[in-house]
Structures are given as C-alpha cells and as structure tokens.
Design goal:
113 residues; alpha+beta; Trna Endonuclease, Chain: A, domain 1; six-stranded mixed beta sheet; globular
Length: 113
C-alpha cells in the first residue's frame, strides 16, 4: 500500500487536474516519474502548455523551483506552482524567474486559468 505522503500528493494532483479539465485543458499526471512537474496541461487554445508542481503550502525548495523554471522555459511552457491547502481553493502562481537561495523574495505572480 502506498504511503500517506504519496496518497496526499496524488489527491492534490487530481484536484488540480479536475479544475483544469473543467476549463477544457488536456492534462497528464506524471505519476511516479520523479520529474520537476507533477502535471502537464495543454490549454484549449494554441498557447503555451503548463508545467505544474503541486504543493500543500508555499514551501518550495530553491533547487526544485529553479529546475522547474529552467525546464519549462526551455520548452516554451509556463511553470506553475499549484498550492492545494486543505479545504481551500487551489491557488496558482506562475514562476517568473530563478529563485535565489535564502532569499525571501519569490519571483512569481498569481495566475488564473
């Protein structure tokens, strides 16, 4: 049986997918892939795909942040952080730059689908 952290993460990913699929995005969950993105979503209009990392809080390791940002921008995609706190709506943030270690500044802007 999977551990509790895996199950909790999977629930966050499926909530994110359900929200985006309601808006006609085509979504793929990267289950067990150990990649920088948990979900990749393609919008209904021909625009950039989304690379999404799902978290339960705003805590996001600097190295993970920078890998997601660098890979998504390399492939002309939008890097997003989806914060899925218990019983609250999902909040999306677009990563707009590289994060500096030990800095309180986070280069992100709120993003709405």
């Amino acid at each position: 049986m999977p551990n509790k952290q895996y199950l909790a993460g999977r629930v966050k990913e499926w909530k994110t997918i359900a929200l985006l699929e309601e808006l006609d995005y085509v979504c793929f969950r990267m289950a067990g892939s150990h990649t920088c993105a948990d979900v990749i979503a393609f919008p209904p209009l021909p625009t950039s795909p989304l690379w999404i990392q799902c978290k339960s809080s705003q805590r996001f390791d600097t190295a993970e942040w920078n890998i997601l940002y660098e890979w998504a921008t390399r492939y002309n995609s939008i890097p997003l952080l989806a914060i899925c706190e218990n019983r609250r709506p999902i909040v999306f943030y677009e990563l707009t730059g590289v994060k500096v270690a030990r800095s309180k500044f986070r280069p992100w802007i709120e993003w709405t689908p």
